[in-house]
Amino acid sequence: MYHNFEELLKDIKKKTIRKTIAVAAAHDREVLASASAARKEGIADFILIGQIAQIRTILVELGEVPDDWTIINEPDDSKAAQHAVLLASTGKADALMKGLLHTSAFLKAIFHKECGLVAPGSLVSQITVTEFPAQNRLVLLSDCAINVSPSYKEKVQIIQNAVALAYRLGIECPNVACIAPVEVINEKMQETIDAAMLSKASERGQIKGCRIDGPLAMDNAISPEAAASKRITSPVAGKADILLMPDLCTGNALDKSLRYFAELNTGSAVIGAGVPIVMTSRSDSARNKLHAIALSVL
Description:
Elements (H helix, E strand, L loop, with lengths): L4 H11 L3 E6 L4 H13 L2 E7 L1 H10 L8 E4 L3 H13 L5 E4 L4 H9 L13 E8 L4 E6 L9 H17 L6 E5 L10 H14 L7 E6 L1 H5 L1 H6 L12 E3 L3 H13 L5 E6 L5 E2 L7 H12 L1
Parallel strand pairs: 1-2, 1-4, 2-3, 4-11, 6-9, 7-8, 7-9
Antiparallel strand pairs: 5-6, 5-10
């Protein structure tokens, strides 16, 4: 099991599972800095699609030789996204990465029916992985970027996507906490009802490969002391590996709080499509973008 991103990067580098990543609208310094770092780590190669003059200028500033990179000139962001998706759908790229373009334009290209990246019935979801130094482990949060107000059925799929990534991170039977403001079922809070349904479905073996409990508030989901103080007896409470967010607003606020308030190292993954997708915030650091690249390679 990986305890932090440093361990993850070292292991991927040792296994030399190098992948090719197509970057849409690659004319961004932080994106190219993370790509440069990933190449130096030996974990990925890149096809850069975007404004070629800016890409070449930034690469030189980063100490790179532009002619050593594969660059495709496409100044239009939407067309750059479409080109990247085409490379992935035809097997010329193993993963996709969002550069300096709006998330909506990037997702529109990915979900286009003709590209075939998202199979009918599949649900694409985002997962934030954060280091949790206080307990020397990684914790997953989902969904923080794609599904706005997921239904019960969609939450099942979000959990399954997160569990699949947790397995890759070495967590054999992840504990899933369904986050809500309170630990009791309240008919006025749909998130508490969904949490109770998910917990019961897990108990009866309808959702396999993990343990689910909820509703749980954030404190007693990750703190054994908080769970004990509220007399919550559960194999999940205080030991959650996956935090199921009730909605995107909650997830997105917590995701950004991890970096800007707590200054924790994070990385994100988008799974459920035909290839892994690196879709970080445009304001995210090059280091956290590198972590996201590592997760996509994994």
